[in-house]
Write a structure and sequence with these properties.
- With 163 residues, the chain is of the alpha+beta class.
- It contains 3 helices and 5 strands, in the order αααβββββ.
- The strands form 2 sheets. It has a 3-stranded antiparallel sheet, covered by helices on one side.
- A hairpin with a 4-residue loop joins β2 and β3.
- The longest helix has 45 residues.
Length: 163
C-alpha cells in the first residue's frame, strides 16, 4: 500500500510538471506569434503616408489609414475577425487587444528623440518618424492555479531612419 501511495504521488507530480511545461510552450508560441504579427502590422501601418506632405519633404503618417491597415494586418496574420476575436482554426484562444497605438511623425515630433513609455517598458532612440504599438492577449491556461498569469503583451516599433 505504501508503494502505491508513493507511486500515485510521483505520477501526480509528473503530470503537473508535464502540463506546466505544455503551458509554458504554449505561452512561447503565442508570444512569438503576437510579436511577429505586431511587427508586420506596424510596418504596414507606417506605409500609410500623406503623399502631399511627402512631396514637401515631410513624413506624415495618416492616422486613420494607418490604424485601419494595422488592424487588417493583425486580423490576417493571427486569424482574427473584425473585432480581433480568434476565428475557428486560429491558434489563439482569447481576444487580442490593442493597448497602445501611437504615431510619431513630422507633424507632432521633432527628431531625434528618446521615446520612453514606462507603462509598457519601451525606451528607444528614434531618429525619424515611427509607429509604436502594443498588443496583448490572455495567457493560455492548461492548469488552473490560484495565481492568475499576466497577459501576454508585446510592443513593436517601425521607424523611418533619417540619414
Amino acid at each position: 500500500m505504501d508503494f502505491i501511495i508513493k507511486l500515485v504521488f510521483v505520477l501526480f507530480i509528473f503530470i503537473q510538471t508535464w502540463f506546466f511545461q505544455l503551458q509554458n510552450d504554449e505561452w512561447d508560441i503565442t508570444r512569438s506569434m503576437l510579436k511577429d504579427a505586431n511587427n508586420m502590422a506596424v510596418h504596414d501601418a507606417s506605409m500609410e503616408l500623406d503623399t502631399a506632405a511627402l512631396a514637401l519633404g515631410d513624413i506624415i503618417i495618416n492616422r486613420d489609414e494607418a490604424m485601419q491597415t494595422f488592424t487588417e494586418t493583425l486580423e490576417a496574420n493571427l486569424g482574427l475577425d473584425a473585432n480581433l476575436i480568434p476565428r475557428s482554426g486560429s491558434r489563439l484562444r482569447a481576444k487580442v487587444e490593442i493597448v497602445d497605438f501611437r504615431i510619431l511623425d513630422d507633424s507632432n515630433t521633432t527628431f531625434p528623440i528618446l521615446y520612453e513609455d514606462p507603462d509598457h517598458g519601451i525606451t528607444k532612440y528614434l531618429t525619424g518618424p515611427a509607429v509604436v504599438a502594443v498588443i496583448k492577449t490572455k495567457h493560455p491556461v492548461l492548469i488552473v492555479r490560484t495565481k492568475q498569469q499576466a497577459d501576454i503583451q508585446v510592443p513593436a516599433i517601425q521607424e523611418y531612419k533619417y540619414k
